[in-house]
Specification:
Layout lengths: L17 H21 L3 H24 L5 H24 L5 H23 L9 H22 L6 H39 L1
Helix pairs in contact: 1-2, 1-3, 2-5, 3-4, 3-5, 4-6, 5-6
Length: 199
């Protein structure tokens, strides 16, 4: 039997699949997570964020294991990550757990890439392939968010809150750097496609 990671996977155009349903639930949970953070219900936000992370792994496994990889699913997954990052950062900033400038830097990158995607779509191009650096940057930021929340959940009196906060902020800075590095790669790829089209 071929390995799940190495065998070729057929991409379908089906909408109503189990992985897509899980992705829809994940996206629906994001406003709730953001509200919980902004309302200072941090433990509940961590629990729901953990369930969201588990569902992200589950829908990918189900899609590959049962041949339910779809075009919509490939679009929903990165959208869910972007929404979780932006909404969580907004909530953290509202709760004074994160500087506003970090949110602005992240949003500016997504705004620039969003414009590029619209321009390419108008020219008949689909979404650019996800770059490894972008995946790592997204992952690091998604690690930073719960670390920052945990730093404010653990009672003061030990080094644990400060340790989580420092690790969370360091991960945030590192993730933003990778996030923008990937953004520059996407911009270069888009410009290359446009130049080829002119020729």
């Amino acid at each position: 039997m071929p390995d799940l990671e190495t065998r070729s996977v057929e991409v379908s155009r089906h909408v109503w699949t189990v992985p897509n349903f899980i992705s829809f639930l994940r996206i629906a949970s994001i406003p709730v997570i953001a509200w919980l953070i902004a309302s200072n219900h941090l433990l509940w936000s961590l629990l729901l964020m953990a369930l969201s992370g588990i569902s992200d792994g589950v829908d990918g496994y189900v899609a590959r294991r049962f041949d339910q990889v779809s075009v919509l699913g490939q679009i929903l997954d990165p959208i869910a990550d972007r929404l979780l990052i932006i909404c969580s950062c907004i909530a953290l900033a509202v709760a004074h757990l994160l500087p506003w400038w970090i949110l602005i830097v992240i949003c500016c990158r997504d705004f620039v890439i969003g414009i590029e995607v619209l321009i390419l779509a108008n020219k008949g191009y689909g979404p650019l392939p996800v770059h490894f650096v972008g995946k790592v940057g997204t992952f690091v930021i998604l690690v930073a968010i719960p670390c920052l929340i945990i730093s404010h959940v653990i009672p003061a009196g030990s080094l644990a809150p400060l340790s989580f906060y420092c690790f969370g902020m360091a991960s945030c800075y590192w993730g933003i750097g990778l996030y923008w590095m990937a953004g520059l790669v996407y911009i270069a790829q888009g410009m290359s496609l446009m130049k080829k089209r002119k020729h």
